[in-house]
# Entry
Amino acid sequence: MSDLKKDAEDLGIKVPGNWGDKRIQEEIDKVLNASTTGANAGNGETLNTAFAPKPDPAAPVPSIGMNKKESTVPVKLLYDAWLEADVRTPAGKIVDLPVSKAKELFAAGKAERADRLPGE
# Structure
C-alpha cells in the first residue's frame, strides 16, 4: 500500500482502486483543510494537525443535516448510506439521526435502533 493511500485511510477516506495519487492528495487536502481551520479562522492561519489524534472509527457520527428542534435517536446502519451528498457512511456505523429520517431507514430495513434499554 502506498504511503499516500495509507495516509488517506488513516484520515477515514475510503480510497477506490481507480484513484490516482493526484485524486488521493486532493481528498486528503479537503479533509485537512476542513479540520485545520479553527480558532484562527479568518486570519488565514491553520492549526498544525500533524499530532492530532486520529478519529475513532467506532465513535458515532455527529447529527447530519438536521433541524435543530427535531430530536435525534442513535441508529446503527445495516447498509452503507449517503447521509450527506458525496459522503458515504459505512454499514455498522452508529449515527445520531432525526427521528423522521431514522423512521425512513427503519421502514426500508436499512438501519436498526442503537440505543440502550433502560437499566443497561
About this structure: The first strand starts at residue 72 and ends at 77.
